[in-house]
User: Fold this.
Amino acid sequence: MAGKNEIDEINAVITQLAETEQVDLSISESTKGKSTKPTVCVIGMGYVGLPLAAVAAKKGYEVFGFDTDVEKLKLIEQGISPFKEEFLEKLLPQVKINTFHDPRLMRICDIHLICVPTPVDEKYYPDLGPVINASKTVAANMKKGSLVVLESTVNPGVSEEVVKPIFEQAGFVVGRDVFIAHCPERVNPGDPKWNVSNIPRVVGSFDAIGLERAKAFYEDVVDAPIMAMETIGEAEAVKIMENSFRDINIAFVNELAKSFALMNIDITNVIRGASTKPYAFMAHWPSCGVGGHCIPVDPYYLIEKAKENDFDHKFLRTARSINNSMPHYTINMLQDLLNAVEKSIKGTNIGLLGLSYKANVGDLRESPSLRILNILREKGAAVHIFDPFVPSMSTVKNIDELLEKSEAIILATNHQAFMEIPADKFNAFGIKVVIDGKNALDKEALKKLGILYGGIGRK
Assistant:
């Protein structure tokens, strides 16, 4: 909890900024000394940071949300989620998050949670720029004794080799002036059951005090078990392992899908059959590609880090190659079926159903749908796009308009609205070819109507 001198100092800063019209921020009564909980600053108001900030506020913490996107902050101040997420849309109007974009306001906070992206560049090389910049910002503005928790997904060694030196260079002694921990985020956008409030977490730190403080905070905020790891490197490795596991298994079924299609075996039936085994099998499903901020990104962090130790993650590289090939595989399947009706992709009206990387959210990060769109355009198709969760990029107003303008369809995202399209509707609009990139449509019903159907591993 902030002391009186710190409150006076921050109020002076707020007054100064307000006079120059740089910030409009009012400190609530709890910040003025009534709250017994530490004051929390969340750096990054995105899919990771905003839900965490909202849950912490609900638990009685005074929460400050820092972001450079002023328009996003204005929405949050009004209790409006800047992105589609049912969990947030219900929670935000019930809580108070103080938003700000001047980093000097960080000095009032006791806990700083870094929740910024960790992407890869066009050559799949990890980009730690956001983590570095956020760490430098916190180090330049925080008070001594603060707890700093990195939630961003990183490879083992980043906290030790990148984050810690930034605070040391700023004059802080780790374990005395600042306590650094890592609690890798676990979010699943659009999941009606699992969210930041109830997913178990792991946490690691450089020292016992940092570990104790971080674990106590998350145990208070999250209604689920919090596991303390022996080292901060182990905590970093947990998230990389989780998502690499999923990527490898998805690559396995994607490769099987390609193989089984040549044997006229429906892989979805095979997976259901294998799932009857009550142990040692976990179903994963093939699709037109892997998207999101984790699965197609995190393995590259481990691949590149391993190179520093002269180790080659051949398995991870192979999995990434297979999954990256699926958009092209999907387009090749489309061309094969168009050949049967004497058409080429060039000049044909193709309807693309879905842009986001997963069902019922508007998240475009690493979406295979965008790669499919680019390939279609490169091949000269006339592409018509509809995604109810991404209206800004849709070229038509609704499903009917898309079907009316299209000769062939690619289902690239399994939004509920798309899965409910009856087979006879495709037929009524004269659709000749349907490529089911998510194996979500009624294959037999479409085929009975004479529509050429292609699923991933469902020939």
Residues 249-459 form a domain with the Rossmann fold fold (CATH 3.40.50.720).
